[in-house]
């Protein structure tokens, strides 16, 4: 049985590599005891703002066996999105994760293939794939399986590649060998806390979601509060400040996923182009892009607010 477990684990990790994932870690599917009081406290302090969906499925967020019957293992995966080229300096800024196609679709396809491959090779394995669209605490599972540690900006950090990657999971009913968590390497550094334009990092490892630029420019459907005027540092969709200043991101490597390559028009857009963008141009340049989440009207609202 131990030999089987080892063999299956090796197969899963080599398959993750073949599919282009940066790394793969595995942990036992069980209740996340340490995260439960943290999540409860975060929600009680309304740090989710208008993101009421964060209050749903509290138990499922903490217990993977409620998402997949008889779940045994959580396979955590990282997929790099760090770009080779960046936006024009005279531009309203969008988060680097949104340069290419929507990661939900890109990763979902890879995970479908991954699960099919596991079932074809190992046999009857039940499970579900998750990409940031279900009640799963991605970062907690990735940290538990040794893929990195949770930094003071509450992002997962790794010594070799920083933090510019997506996190996804397969939760499966297969017993595997489990990885151990790694150690924290933030030390006394407070670069992310000091640099946050809206002071959303209210303490080490605690981000008040309702103060974050990403929240205002993507999640908030109403008007952006006037008191935030002048503090967005030209971010029109998302924000990368706490990642850009993190010393570990000096080690970021360029991704090798063609679907994450940006539309060349996006890189050359100036502030004037953003201000004059039509709905038709928006549809062409941002076809299958994460920016569609904010919709054309949302992007226009954000740019008007930055004026």
From TrEMBL:
The keyword tRNA processing applies. GO terms for cellular component: cytoplasm. TRNA binds at residue 221. It is found in: Cytoplasm. Keywords: 4Fe-4S, Cobalamin, Cobalt, Cytoplasm, Iron, Iron-sulfur, Metal-binding, Oxidoreductase, Queuosine biosynthesis, tRNA processing. Its main location: cytoplasm. Transmembrane segments: none annotated. [4Fe-4S] cluster 1 binds at residues 186, 189, 192, 246. Pfam families: Fer4_16, QueG_DUF1730. One of its GO terms (molecular function) is 4 iron, 4 sulfur cluster binding. Pathway: tRNA modification; tRNA-queuosine biosynthesis. The active site is at residue 132. InterPro entries: 4Fe4S_Fe-S-bd, 4Fe4S_Fe_S_CS, QueG, QueG_DUF1730. Monomer. This is Epoxyqueuosine reductase.
């Amino acid at each position: 049985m131990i030999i089987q477990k080892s063999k299956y684990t090796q197969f899963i990790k080599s398959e993750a590599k073949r599919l282009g994932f940066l790394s793969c870690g595995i942990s036992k599917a069980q209740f996340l005891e340490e995260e439960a009081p943290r999540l409860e406290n975060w929600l009680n302090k309304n740090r989710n703002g208008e993101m009421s969906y964060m209050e749903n499925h509290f138990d499922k967020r903490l217990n993977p066996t409620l998402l997949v019957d008889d779940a045994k293992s959580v396979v955590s995966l990282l997929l790099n999105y760090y770009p080779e080229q960046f936006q024009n300096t005279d531009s309203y800024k969008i988060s680097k994760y949104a340069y290419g196609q929507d990661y939900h679709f890109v990763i979902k396809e890879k995970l479908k293939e991954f699960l099919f491959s596991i079932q074809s090779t190992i046999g009857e394995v039940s499970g579900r794939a998750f990409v940031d669209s279900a009640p799963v605490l991605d970062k907690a599972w990735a940290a538990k399986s040794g893929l990195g540690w949770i930094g003071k900006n509450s992002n997962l950090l790794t010594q070799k590649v920083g933090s510019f990657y997506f996190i996804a999971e397969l939760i499966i009913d297969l017993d595997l060998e489990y990885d151990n968590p790694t150690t924290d390497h933030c030390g006394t550094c407070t670069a992310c806390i000091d640099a946050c334009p809206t002071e959303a990092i209210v303490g080490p490892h605690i981000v008040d979601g309702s103060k974050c630029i990403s929240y205002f420019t993507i999640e908030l459907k109403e008007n952006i509060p006037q008191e935030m005027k002048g503090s967005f540092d030209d971010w029109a969709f998302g924000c990368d400040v706490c990642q850009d200043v993190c010393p570990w991101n000096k080690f970021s490597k360029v991704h090798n996923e063609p679907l994450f390559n940006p539309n060349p028009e996006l890189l050359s857009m100036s502030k004037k182009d953003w201000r004059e963008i039509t709905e038709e141009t928006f549809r062409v340049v941002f076809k299958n892009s994460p920016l569609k989440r904010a919709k054309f009207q949302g992007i226009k609202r954000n740019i008007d607010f930055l004026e």
